[in-house]
Specification:
The complex is a heterodimer of chains A (579) and B (158). Chain A folds into 3 domains: 2-92, Roll (Ubiquitin-like (UB roll)), CATH 3.10.20.740; 129-208, 2-Layer Sandwich (Alpha-Beta Plaits); 212-568, 3-Layer(aba) Sandwich (Rossmann fold). Chain A has 19 helices and 19 strands. Chain A has 579 residues and is of the alpha/beta class. Chain B is built from 7 helices and 4 strands. Chain B has helices spanning 2-20, 27-38, 43-53, 57-66, 86-90, 93-104, 149-154, and strands at 78-83, 117-122, 134-136, 139-141. Chain B has a 4-stranded mixed β-sheet, covered by helices on one side. Chain B is elongated. The two termini of chain B are 27 Å apart. In chain B, 25% of the residues are buried. Classes of the chains: A alpha/beta (579), B alpha+beta (158). At the A-B interface, strand 7 of A face helix 3 and helix 4 of B.
């Protein structure tokens, strides 16, 4: 153990602890901007400066300063406060300060630190460069005028996701965070995952909003507007309304969507159950008929694009299942439309997703049936929160309603899709029942739960050993696939989610500040709420979903049948890294 | 012929990268080698370095744009370096630069379409007594006025 004194308080910490982390143990919150725990610690912004009284000299950045025995530091001396303020004002000098119309207004780490440090005036009104916004990506808008060069997006994109779409270029005043050769994010190897957005402390990166399109559709009397919500949305949305992380708001969300005025409120969880029927059947058929193994899940469009860009030799391993919301969209415009006698051309499908890659996915040419896109608009969880606010809805105090029938029922297996390992567990629940012909009671596959980057398990079902693996975040997927490619690992089935933690911490979910991330891990809390909701469900296996059973009986026939292939399955293709 | 040269340069760069990979901090020497071979770190060259080293191209590009020794496009036949140092600045070199931009039709850091001239804004050339000053290749031109520019350029355009 190491013992040091911070602001007169004696603190004991293990070795390899920074002074910043040590201070938090003594309930001292040193301000930070460029620091993002576990992702970025580069001492660049100088907000976390501390004054060395003993065991060192001058002012040091505490995020990269290892705690040492006998160290005495001050986090709030006059010298520290003055230096922080000067540095902060220099950051502000060329920052686009139009906060009132900024997407991160009141959820901005720069705003917050100005308040906390007591910045009253910006002493240096520096030259500002009016740089164009990059709006060409269907998922992400990049505004260099708001960027404070903290490099958190660069760290998450390069080091965590192993993509490398953006970097710091040029030098000095001209420094800018951008893709190579000044290209648009749309023309480089960006996988649209949006992890850069949730890492950004300010409004320099945000989703390409489709709210206006959705309001226009809702106001158009000739349109029948149907909404669906992804499994993970309900475990994050409450945070936008002051409900603490780790709470589910399923019922309130359904109420809010009804009140906004959607003609039907369906649940993508229904299609998650359907995905298990299709994907589970596909897996068993690949195993029994010598098909390509390991089969890899295809729910995450960020992962799919990563595979198309970086691992094209694995494209045949991908399940041909469309992602759940695309399945749901395809069924709304066929099965539901037929049954209700609605012209599919008048239907406008809105998907509420924890994801920015789904905005890219919905534009894929393959995801069209009878000339109509399966999904017309994708909103992130954050955009839904904005729509709820624009609708004057007191969300936190809403009563709880249910989803609408026909495409709205779901089981616990679908509920857990949003957490890493959830799709795997849901598939195992159904596959095990099919193989044994029983209604198994022991259905908690805990080996595939948890936030570790790569998990693996061998599951014995009906005399068969099923080798499975789960990866979350494309950096972990890379590690796993390289081991498979090298022949070091042999699996039957792999679940991959593009975002670390899975969809509950997707790029479209509510943003948790770097300071809050030091107190709790949203990956853990949102997953906990997910598994709690599953445990409370009456039905916890996808094949028990009565509306799914009815769909097969009345419309699809059987899983992986002709109609399913037409509506619910797709294909993939290699992509060039740069345009 | 061109294709053979391309292939030779590519092979030489790849074997140099293989060699450098074994040492710590291989990126800078590789980029210097690539620039000396190709004359510039074009998109294709940076993509090759990124693939061979297994690092994101954004890392290569970041270094390429950080150091002025690296060029993204091949330079022209003649390099026009206009001094923007303090002494030249106070002696109105800006007007000379403006005239140069007008005559060549390019901004500092760019190369004319015919690959004849590359225009650069440079730091002090060390002959402040001649301010405002510029160099074209190894030749120094001092005590410049904007009206000198067309005549000087004419010497190089035949």
């Amino acid at each position: 153990m190491i013992s040091l004194i911070i602001d007169g308080i004696k603190v004991e910490v293990p070795e390899n602890t920074t002074v910043l982390q040590a201070a938090r143990k003594a309930n001292i919150k040193i301000p930070t901007l460029c620091y993002l725990e576990g992702i970025n610690a580069i001492g660049a912004c100088r907000m976390c400066l501390v004054e060395m009284i003993e065991g060192g000299r001058g002012l040091q950045a505490s995020c990269v300063l290892p705690a040492a025995n006998g160290m005495v530091v001050s986090t709030k001396s006059k010298a520290v406060q003055d230096a922080r303020k000067v540095n902060l004002e220099l950051i502000l000098s060329n920052h686009d300060k139009r906060c009132l119309s900024c997407v991160r207004n009141r959820n901005c780490e720069l705003q917050k630190i100005c308040e906390e440090l007591g910045v009253e005036d910006v002493s240096y009104e520096g030259a500002s460069v009016d740089r164009p916004l990059d709006m060409m990506s269907p998922s992400i808008v990049r505004d260099p005028n708001k960027c404070i060069l903290c490099r958190r997006c660069v760290a998450v994109c390069n080091n965590v996701q192993k993509v490398g779409a953006v970097g710091a270029t040029q030098r000095g005043f001209k420094t800018i965070v951008e893709p190579v050769f000044g290209k648009s994010l749309n023309d480089v190897l960006c996988i649209n995952c949006g992890q850069c957005i949730t890492a950004c402390p300010v409004g320099a990166l945000y989703e390409k909003s489709e709210i206006d399109n959705v309001w226009a559709a809702l106001g158009d009397k000739s349109k029948y507007v149907v909404v669906q919500t992804a499994p993970a949305v309900r475990f994050g949305l409450g945070e936008e309304f002051g409900i603490p992380s780790g709470n589910s708001v399923t019922g309130k969300m359904a109420t809010a969507l009804h009140r906004i005025g959607f003609d039907k409120v369906f649940d993508t969880d229904f299609a998650a159950d359907l995905t298990i029927m299709e994907e589970g059947t596909e897996l068993l058929s690949r195993i029994n008929n010598g098909g390509k193994l390991p089969m890899i899940t295809s729910c995450s469009p960020g992962w799919i694009k990563y595979c198309e860009l970086f691992f094209p030799d694995f494209l045949d391993n991908l399940s041909t299942c469309k992602s759940p919301h695309e399945m749901e969209g395809a069924l709304i415009k066929s099965y539901y439309a037929q049954k209700m006698g609605i012209d599919p051309k008048s239907i406008y499908v809105v998907s509420i997703m924890p994801c920015t890659a789904k905005k890219f996915e919905k534009e894929r040419e393959e995801l069209v049936n009878d000339g109509l896109p399966n999904v017309d608009a994708v909103l992130t969880t954050r955009e839904l929160a904005r729509m709820i606010k624009q609708s004057n809805i007191d969300f936190a105090n809403l009563p709880e309603e249910d989803f609408d029938r026909m495409l709205g029922e779901s089981t616990g297996a679908a509920v857990i899709f949003g957490a890493t390992g959830g799709v795997m567990e849901a598939a195992l629940r159904t596959v095990a029942d099919i193989l044994t012909g029983e209604d198994l009671k022991d259905i908690d596959y805990k080996a595939v739960r948890g936030i570790e980057g790569v998990k693996e398990a061998t599951v014995s079902v009906a005399g068969m050993d099923l080798n499975v693996a789960v990866a979350n975040g494309t950096g972990n997927a890379k590690k796993l696939l390289e081991a498979v490619r090298a022949g070091e690992k042999n699996y039957h089935f792999i679940e991959i989610m593009g975002c670390p933690g899975g969809c509950v911490t997707g790029g479209g979910q509510p943003i948790v500040s770097s300071q809050d991330r030091m107190n709790f891990d949203p990956k853990v809390l949102r997953a906990k709420a997910t598994y709690a909701e599953d445990a409370n469900m009456q039905k916890r296996k996808s094949h028990k979903n009565a509306e799914v059973q009815q769909l097969y009986k009345e419309f699809l026939g059987e899983p992986n049948g002709h109609k399913s292939h037409e509506l619910l399955h797709t294909h993939y293709h290699q992509r060039p890294k740069y345009k | 012929m061109v294709n053979v040269d391309e292939k030779l340069m590519r092979d030489e760069l790849i074997s140099f990268i293989e060699e450098q990979k074994k040492k710590p901090g291989p990126l800078m020497p590789i980029m210097q080698k690539a620039q000396s071979l190709y004359g510039a770190l074009t998109f294709e060259v940076q993509e090759l370095i990124s693939e061979q080293l297994g690092i994101p191209m954004s890392d290569v590009y970041g270094v390429a744009t950080f150091y002025s020794q690296f060029a993204l496009q091949p330079k022209g036949e003649h390099i026009v370096s206009v001094c923007m140092g303090t002494a030249c600045y106070v002696r109105n070199v800006e007007k000379v630069m403006e005239k140069m931009i007008e005559e060549l039709g390019i901004n500092p850091g760019e190369t004319t379409k015919d690959n004849k001239f590359t225009l650069e804004a440079t730091r002090c050339l060390g002959c402040c007594g001649l301010a405002p000053v510029m160099m074209i290749d190894d030749q120094v031109y001092g005590r410049l006025t904007p009206s000198d520019v067309p005549d000087i350029l004419a010497k190089y355009t035949d």
